[in-house]
């Protein structure tokens, strides 16, 4: 793993950061891709502990797929952005990497299909837990939709796609359920890992369930407490003032005036502290 990171991590992180330099989308930019790689490493380590074998080449393919899966969002915000991501990665591979045609195609296919929430492209490997690249990429991408970070990520991308605020909770709840069910179906046997992820999933679910309830009373988003207040802060600070969301916890006390908001930003800070290179919005 260390050899693969030494060879690819800085190059990929800088390359993806450059791609997003002219596209304000903190929810899915280079910091998101780095977090997905964090989850990919954890899952690979857990599977390795179960006797699965990952060659250096497999890990090289995985890190490249992880860092390019959402780059298509620099061209389109559509849910089918994986097609654009594939084209962008294709250009990168022709200049920086050398794989066999089969390995090359495997990377591109995983990137293109990663956001299909029917999960129709997940492959059956005949193993208790799948270790194919498509499943690993899809699941690790899904993991970044959980927790306080996930709350923001859903909000920003749906607002950017011009989905009305009052319609967002229902869409999040449906999408979030699909993501967690997919995780559970594939890796439910990893007990400790699943307990951790279930808590993160439940945090996001609870937030949007509460938001849905509160929105029934505040048609104009006028509340200064609860999830509506958090939504207002996130939209104002990130979309209007263009403060990267990874910097918000630094002055969370100034942003949240009620217990719900304080708890949210404390949770966001705790999550971001797991990623030292992203907590400063680098």
Which helices and strands appear, and what pairs or packs with what?
Blueprint: H1 2-19, H2 30-49, H3 56-68, H4 82-96, H5 101-113, H6 133-143, H7 147-160, H8 168-187, H9 191-215, H10 226-240, H11 252-255, H12 259-272
Helix pairs in contact: 1-2, 1-3, 2-3, 2-6, 3-5, 3-6, 4-5, 5-6, 7-9, 8-9, 10-12
Written overview of the protein:
The chain is an all-alpha fold. The chain has two domains: 1-141, Hypothetical protein af1432 (Orthogonal Bundle), CATH 1.10.3210.10; 145-282, no CATH class. It contains twelve helices and no strands. It has helices at 2-19, 30-49, 56-68, 82-96, 101-113, 133-143, 147-160, 168-187, 191-215, 226-240, 252-255, 259-272. The longest helix has 25 residues, at 191-215.
């Amino acid at each position: 793993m260390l050899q693969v990171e030494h060879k690819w991590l800085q190059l990929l992180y800088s390359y993806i950061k450059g791609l997003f330099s002219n596209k304000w989308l903190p929810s899915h930019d280079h910091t998101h891709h780095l977090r997905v790689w964090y989850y990919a490493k954890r899952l690979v380590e857990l599977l390795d502990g179960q006797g699965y074998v990952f060659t250096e080449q497999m890990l090289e393919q995985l890190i490249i797929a992880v860092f390019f899966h959402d780059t298509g969002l620099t061209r389109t915000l559509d849910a089918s952005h994986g097609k654009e991501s594939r084209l962008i990665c294709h250009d990168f591979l022709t200049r920086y990497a050398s794989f066999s045609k089969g390995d090359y195609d495997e990377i591109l296919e995983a990137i293109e299909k990663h956001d299909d929430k029917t999960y129709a492209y997940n492959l059956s490997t005949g193993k208790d837990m799948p270790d194919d690249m498509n499943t690993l990429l899809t699941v690790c991408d899904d993991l970044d939709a959980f927790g306080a970070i996930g709350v923001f990520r859903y909000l920003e991308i749906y607002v950017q796609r011009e989905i009305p605020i009052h319609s967002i909770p229902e869409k999040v709840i449906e999408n979030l359920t699909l993501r967690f069910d997919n995780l559970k179906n594939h890796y439910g046997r990893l007990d400790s890992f699943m307990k951790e992820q279930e808590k993160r999933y439940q945090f996001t679910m609870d937030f949007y369930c509460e938001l849905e309830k509160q929105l029934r009373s505040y048609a104009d988003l006028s509340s200064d407490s609860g999830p509506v207040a958090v939504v207002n802060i996130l939209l104002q600070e990130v979309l209007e003032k263009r403060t990267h969301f990874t910097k918000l916890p630094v002055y969370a006390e100034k942003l949240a005036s009620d217990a719900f908001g304080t708890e949210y930003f404390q949770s966001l800070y705790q999550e971001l502290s797991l990623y030292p290179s992203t907590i400063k919005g680098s």
